[in-house]
Request: fold
Amino acid sequence: MITPMKKVTVLTVASAVEETLQALRTLEILHLTPLQAAAGAKLNKARGEMNRVQKALEVVPEKAPKGVTPVKEAATAASLIDEIQNLVAESKQAEIDKEQAEEELSKLSMFKNLDPATAAALQAKGIYVKLYQLHDGKIPFELEGEGSIEEFGQDENGKYVAVVSRGEAPVAVKGNFTELTMPQKSLAEYREMEAKAKETLARVQKRLGELSGVRESIEDKLLEVGDDYRMVEAEASMVGDKNVAAVQGFCPAPRVGELEKAAREHGWGLLVDDPAEDDDIPTLLTYSKLSRPMQFLYDIIGISPGYKEVDVSAVFLCFFSIFFAMIVGDSAYGLLFLGLALFARSKMPKANPAGFHFIYLMSIATIVWGVINASFLGLSPALAGWTYYLDITNYGWLPEPLKNAMLWIRTSAPTDPAKFEAYKAFAQSITLLPESFVPKAAGASQMQHIQLFCFCIAVVHLSIAHIWNVCVRIKRKDSTFMAQVGWLIGCWVMFFLACQMVLGIDMPKFVIPMFIVEAVLLVLFTVPPKRLKQDFISIPMLVLDVVNSFTDVISYIRLFAVGMSGAAIAEAFNDMLSPLFGSAVGIAGAAFLLLFVHGLNIALAVMGVAVHAVRLNTLEFSNGLGQEWSGFAFAPFAKQKN
Reply:
């Protein structure tokens, strides 16, 4: 649930500002909001120090490179930061020197030991030396006066020559050429500069690698200067005069009592009020044991409901589990995820359990879906006879209705003739569906079954969103709740329309009257009467919104498509590699290839979850609910370094 917030203003004497902020930081219950823009020399200095340490941390690797022994002890954190800054400065200068030397050598290396000092001395005596790079052309390179051409070599860019001439000015030349500028230093000096720069860079990288052993000291220092900066920022954002100062923020309503107790102890003035309509209020989610895994997913996605929105964690988690299972689809993958999660948990017993609980839930859901579909690494009894025993519909203890329901949801009918006949009779008993939903032969494709299942998930998921929206608007005494009733009706209209267009299921006769009721409710109640003049344009736009509601329902068929693609890849490679199963060498080769294929399949499935399962909750469902995920997390004023 979203924890209610109170807007709190704390008044203190001006001489006790720092003491007050220290006490508030210890309490860790107030999300500060600035009463004025924070500024000042003290704040700039604190920010600069934090940035300095942050940059130092960025250049120190997390692990030492191969062949470098990390140091175990270092000087104080302050001297360590200074050393890193000096190393960075050395590295930057070495990079500049290296680039300059490489640039000059790349242009002039053909001139061997060219020295500009010698050329300058000759020029003082009336002897000019000019450097040229010659290119192929119709006009040959020639001197337009007396002088000599000295060749120094040739590469893919052309021939390199020096022209030596006497007189008051250099001799003129003609042809297709580029005149090269005389370098500032000799080429020997540039070669030495390049070597020294490379040596410096190697030394700096080695030292930074050694300092990876004391990276924790820098991280601690960053926490310390970060705390200092936030303290200075909080003080700079307060308002007051020479006598009184005020700090403001949001406090969770259940913890206001703690703040009142602290106010009595420290002699603060305290003003507690409800947040105003235009306040930017942080969101603090309180999770139940069932919905706690959502904390992990919210952190991964980086979303949070707004304070005035609703907490959909339980519904989000429930349907996300279904989507995850349908997209991954294979019970072997689910067992792998579960095993890895249990192993990681054993190695990290003190880690936040929310992430592990999330993976446990997703793994179990995948295993269950895989069992329902008898999906295990894409194998079939024809390729691996032992998989017959993994299909629980082959056991007599399973109740017949449940067995038939599991068979109905699969993409193909049973291949066993006796089993098929019993199942076919069950399929024929569902008279609401057309004849096409009854398989004609054992093993026949029945893709439309799972497609209908996807549409059923869609209408249930979206109906929950619209019903929730109706309840929220009634609670807020918002007359537009009737429009949401219209959208709820429209959701079912679009479900029946999708079933007819995609699956050939005839629409019931009551669908047209439902659509008429939907249209009336949307036109009459989408815009409140008092805003009709300003927002009249919203009514014509309803046509596009109705079309979007149809695409929302259709969108859920992606669960079938993505899930089927993974199963098809696994089955295709199993069939292709099955001829290798006849020998030990063949089995080993096939196992290696299948390991790669299934690894790739798992990666694609995880990507599919990240795109499709998240989208169906944060877009289609959230649109129906009116959820914009505009919130930001409650972050109490607290000390980061303990």
